[in-house]
Amino acid sequence: MKKYLYCLLIPVLITACSSNKNKYRTILRLSSIGIKGDSIPQYTFRYDQEGHLVELVKYHQFNDTNNTTFTYDSSNRLCSMTAVRQHNNSRQVQQHARVNAWDKDGNIREIAYFDPAQQLIRTATITWKHGLPAALKYSDSTQAVKWENDNGNPDWKNICSDSLPEEMKEGNLLVRNTQHEWDQNYNPLRPLVNQLLLSGCIPLPAQTRPVPDFASLLLPISTNNPTLIKMEEKEKTAYSNTSMECQRQTTLQFDYTYNWNGYPQSAWVHFHTEGFTRLSGDSQLIIDYQYQ
Fold first, then answer.
1. Which domain of life does the protein's organism represent (predicted)?
2. Cβ–Cβ under 8 Å, residues 292 and 48
């Protein structure tokens, strides 16, 4: 009799364990990403009681931050964003955004961006595939992004332009191509894809400077975590009588340790870049992930 009872209990226990595992995964929320040894984080995340991300803060210094706040409608859909630069005691609104349309799954599809005086700057459209973005395009042609999703993990191409009027034949064209390799563990940023897109956290091709913006590479839009990122950036600057072209290659390697439920706890990162200055650079650091 005991044998039969054990047989009946086993699937029940397995189901309960699976349910608890999924339950814990859904309520575990990323609270900060930082570099080990730094006195300030790179990013912090704040949530309301319902679990919505209501503020994303990027730190430049302790008293110098970019604060992005979000609001939601009664259907729990993301509906607006305000970006503020805060330095010491000064607070400067940089832009507002309003979501005008969503897809059937509640992902943002059309966005209107406004300056601090609430004047329309531009609009953006996003298409989705399997719950992840497939393409993003701005109405003023300043930026376009295309994702090639492979099982929820994208390689992507990013094109930026700040060209002046065509007859002047001046301006910049910036292109970035990326290739990735991935682990098999859950990316804690996966539930925040809509917020990252609305707030403009997609890494832009960096204009001519020695190294890319490392912090912007810590917010991957993917299902799993990157173990290898290879980037190629090209910049073409046109003047009235001449033009200049530069390029840069960057490689990031990630080696993770995970906590009890598979979320990344820390990552050793090797960062190599070469180009633009015709010099190569290597650095190593450890990224810490904190949760609530």
1. Bacteria
2. no
